[in-house]
C-alpha cells in the first residue's frame, strides 16, 4: 500500500499558486481568492495578460501540431498546468490518433484536474513532479508505461521555466532530459521576457516573488542556454506570435508586446 499522502493534502488555498493564478487569467474556475488577488494585481500592471496567455496556448498548439506533423507520437509536457481547452493530447490526437502524452506538474491542483480530464483517455497520464528532479519523473512507473525512450519524444516546457531560477540543478536537469531522449526528439519552450514592458514585468516578478512563486525573466541569450545541446529549428528563438504563425491568423503588429519568447529544437 502507498504511504504517499493524497495529492489534495498538498493544496493550500491561502497560498497563491502559479497553476491557479494562470487558470484565473485564462478565465478558468480552478482557483481561490488568494490566486485571484495576485492575478488582479498583475492585470493592473499589464492589462493585456489574458491575451498574452491565450497567445501562449496558441503557440503550444502550433508546436504540438508541428511535432506531430514531423511524426513524433510521444509528448512529455513538463509544467503542464491546469488543463484547459486544446490540450496536448487533443491537438496531437487530431493528427496522430495513437499519440501518447504524459503531463507533469508540481502543483497538486493541476495534477488532480488533469487526472479528472484524462480519466478514460487511453495513452495519457498525469504525474506530480518537479522538473528540476528529472530522475523522479523519468523513472516514474506510470510514465514508463506510456513513453518509449527508444523513440523520439517531444518535450514541452511551455511557460514554466520562468518559475525556475537558474542553478546548477536546473542546468543538470535540462541536460538529463536531452540525454534521456532519442535522436529526433524535440524540445519546445516558451518563456516570459521583460524586453517590451521592463518596468511592469519587473513589478509583476516582484509580486510573484512576494507570494513565494518566483518569476524569472530571461532574454534570448538566457533562453538559448536552455536549448544548449539541441539544434534550434527555423526560425530560432522569436517572440511567440512570430513562431510559425497560422496563415489564417491576423498579422500581429507588435509581437514583442506579447512578452513571450518561443523556440523549438531537435536532438541530432
Ligand atoms: C503558467 S503555467 C503554464 C501551463 C502550461 N504549460 C501552459 O503553457 O498553458 C506554469 C505551470 O508550471 C508549473 N510549475 C512551476 N514550477 C514547476 C516545476 N519546477 N516543475 C514542474 N512544474 C512546475 C506550475 O505549477 C504551473 O502549473
Notes on the structure:
The protein is α/β, with parallel strands linked by helices and 268 residues long. The protein has a single domain, classed as Vaccinia Virus protein VP39 (Rossmann fold). The chain is built from 10 helices and 8 strands. Strands 1, 2, 3, 4, 5, 6, 7 and 8 form an 8-stranded mixed beta sheet that branches. Strand 2, helix 5 and strand 3 form a beta-alpha-beta unit. The chain is globular and about 45 Å long. The relative contact order is 0.15. S-adenosylmethionine binds next to helix 1 and helix 3.
Any ligands, ions or cofactors bound here, and which? S-adenosylmethionine
Kindly identify the CATH topology.
Rossmann fold
> Domains counted in the coordinates: how many?
1
Please tell me how large the radius of gyration is.
Answer: 17 Å
**Shape by Cα distribution:** globular
Q: Taking all residues together, what is the mean pLDDT?
A: 92
| SS content category | alpha/beta
Unreliable stretches: none
Question: What is the overall number of helices?
Answer: 10
Helical coverage, percent range: 25-40%
CATH C-level class: Alpha Beta
Proportion of beta-strand residues:
5-15%
Order of helices and strands: HHHEHEHEHHEHEHHEEE
The count of β-strands is: 8
CATH superfamily, by name, is Vaccinia Virus protein VP39
First CA to last CA: what distance?
Answer: 42 Å
Largest sheet: 8 strands, mixed
CATH architecture: 3-Layer(aba) Sandwich
